[in-house]
Structures are given as C-alpha cells and as structure tokens.
Design goal:
Helices cover 31% and strands 45% of the residues. The chain has helices at 16-32, 72-81, 102-107; strands at residues 2-11, 36-52, 55-67, 85-93.
Length: 108
C-alpha cells in the first residue's frame, strides 16, 4: 500500500449534511478501491486565492490515506467527475506528517 497525503476542496454552497454525505461517499470510494483513511481533519471554510468554478471559498478536508499505487489514477478520475469537489491533491509520501497538522495547531 502506498501512503498519500490527500486534500480535497469542496464547494462553498454545501450544507453541513451535504458536506458530510460527500465525505462519506468519498471514504466509500476509497474503500471500494482497497484503500483506507488513516487520519482526517477538517480545515473548515477558507478563502481561495482566486475564484475556482465561480467559488470564492471552499471547505478544505485533509486526509492521510493508504491506497494501492495503481488505484490513484482511478481515484483521480472519479474525483474529476464529482461536482461537489472543486479541487484535490494527492501527494505520495514515505511516511505521514505529524498530526494534528499546522493548520489545526494555528487555529488554537
């Protein structure tokens, strides 16, 4: 299993129940691809540096995931089709970063 730091940005106009549903659906997609979420945290609604698909803000979700290397392209293609997700980034790492992340530490 390959280790990935995974960030998804969801549309600003999602209600809290829609946001939870989108995250559960994303986790189910990962499980269908023989992956798992090791750690996750919500960075909340944040301003974007520039508008993306007419959104000036986005909900940021950070995850440490384990996923077979050959399934990352399939995951990316599924994320491209999801209208609730406006951007995503998956970075392969040798080991996960310290948790909680700096984004959460700076909030406190």
């Amino acid at each position: 299993m390959a280790l990935f730091e995974h960030i998804i940005m969801l549309r600003q106009d999602l209600s809290s129940s829609d946001l939870e549903d989108a995250l559960k659906a994303h986790e189910q997609t990962l499980e269908e691809m023989q992956g798992s979420v090791v750690y996750k945290e919500s960075w909340g609604l944040r301003n974007l540096a520039y508008p993306i698909k007419e959104n000036k803000k986005a909900f940021y979700e950070f995850m440490n995931i384990e996923l077979p290397q050959n399934n990352i392209k399939d995951l990316n293609s599924k994320l491209n089709l999801n209208e609730k997700i406006i951007r995503y980034l998956s970075i392969k790492v040798k080991e996960f970063c310290d948790t909680p992340t700096t984004m959460i530490k700076n909030k406190d």
